[in-house]
Amino acid sequence: GYEHPPAPGIPPPDSPPPDSMPPGSPPPEVQIPIAQHAAAQSPSMEQYQHPMRLPMSSGLAGFENDSVLEQSPSRSGHFIKLVIGVIVVALALNLFWPEFSVRHAEGVLVPNAPYQGPPTIANVWAMDEFTFTPLAEIDMEARVLHKKRYRFGKTSELSQFDLALGWGAMSDQYIFDRLSFSQRGRWYFFQSKEQHMPLAPSVALNSSSNWHTIASSDEVQDAIANLKVGHIIHLKGQLVNVNTNDGWRWQSSMSRSDRGDGSCELIWVESVEVINAGQ
Between residues 4 and 127, which one has the greater pLDDT? Predict the structure, then answer.
């Protein structure tokens, strides 16, 4: 009959066991399959294995709490950079994304300038470290030309929002469409989108102003925060001067026609409501 040859590395069944072989005889040759031999000799196999320290405790809960999968430093570094990038983009959009603007039919929407009269609060009052001195009452309707939120500095602790407000010609959609508006550094700016101004600069300056708003309550603060460019609003409050015990002070303008440093209004806002939301 036909006998199968023995498997590689296994001595024939009739060969004597190793410990019974005659003294001085060479040990039997043991063969290793080529693929197994190559794997055993190749040091690069470890490069493709992800090391894992297995938990000492048993069970699923132990595996979740105790096992540690070691990640590549470069991979974790890329993830951290990605997270930082997303945060930076979100902050940039929040800080610099233009305010949504509502529209109206052309024509003057607010014919009258703000009313200014004697203050309706007679006494000085305090809030936190700030002391307020009332100067005049303000009762006005106006168009929101621009809105800017400030988050840093001592003034932002007191006034988070500046409102650029317009009345008369500056409440007209025709004029609004031909001007661009901006606010920075607690100032208000406008310029023509065309070669020439659509109205005399003096008219534009006398029909608009920058208002540093100090909310008298959380409800008023929320109302200011929700205002949109183009809203027609009714606002009431007190023009104030503010100071602290360390000598810091912030003063309000008392005129709508002044220019330069100190020409913005600092107003304690008692109420604000949208009377024409536009489209």
Answer: 127
**Residue that has been written with the tokens 């000799």 in this structure:** 41
Long-range contacts formed by 220-226: CB under 8 A, 24+ apart:
220/269, 220/270, 220/271, 220/272, 221/160, 223/272, 223/273, 224/160, 224/161, 224/163, 224/269, 224/272, 225/149, 225/160, 225/161
Report the b/e string of 106-132 with b at 16+ CB within 10 A. Answer: eebbbeebbebeebeeeeeeeeeebbb
All residues at 6 or more sequence positions from 61 whose CB lies less than 8 Å from its CB, including other chains: none
pLDDT tens-digit series, residues 50-103: 444 434 444 433 334 333 444 455 676 777 777 787 676 655 555 555 567 999
What is the pLDDT, as a whole number, of residue 24?
56
